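Q: What structure does this chain adopt?
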Amino acid sequence: MTHRQESDRVAHGFPHRAAVGASLTALYRRLSPDGVHRYPSSVPAADVALTDDEDLHLGAQRVARTLVRHLRLPEARMVVGFRTMEHAATVELTAGPEYFVELNNRFRTRRRDIGAALAHEITHVLLHRLGLGFPGTAENEILTDVTTSYLGAGWLLLDAYRRDGVESQKLGYLTPEEFGYVLAKRAELFGEDPSPWFTSAVAYEAWTRGRTEAARERTAPPLAGAGWAAARRYAWERRRGRAGEDAPYAFHDGAPAGAVSFSCPVCRQRLRVPAGRALRARCAVCRTVLECAG
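A:
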């Protein structure tokens, strides 16, 4: 897992939008909607915190066991060690039943971020067990961050993002806003409010920006609830059968368009429905029923 400090430039915004969407779709396809719903609660902060007087190695092992249970990993024993390395952490992926996680030595004095580093690495183990992955390394790391966040442990990674006079740090491969976006998708699904868990002011800001982006997707045409201006633009583009370059939908079958395709606001699977009339569409991947305005 990568780690950026003050001298490095932290990317912002949503540059990995396509990879994040593909990760959500792949996760739903592999686990099924019922499998995703086996993770209704995020890991509690108290369960993954190390106290100042707790033995470092025993505490790290305890947090690892907590995350293994949270991610529903069977027969997975984590052996946690510390050493000098370039990255924040690494995990040795084998057939099990033991997995060796190594954390950067700096976590010896940054105990509150041990849970975040372990969450990412243990999710690598989960994806390994599931046989879920993408061909490229970068895409796989994004998949890991998305899965960690969507299954209830990724808020730790966002909260490890800090920028103040004392220290500056960011963990993971997603931008802070992308972490906030995935957490907002999860929050909507399970009715969670992660905002009280953030101890970092910049992490909370990133969460709110990600939440705004997720909310925008839920009301983008052709979905019902779109704002007046967006709905009017959609109707005009549908009549001519061609969407603008920045539109979140595409038209098909002539002018006026006979069909429209768009991404499911939950799992990002691409859907295609008749255009020009109000209807309900059911996503075949996540089973979400969507109200479409036409």
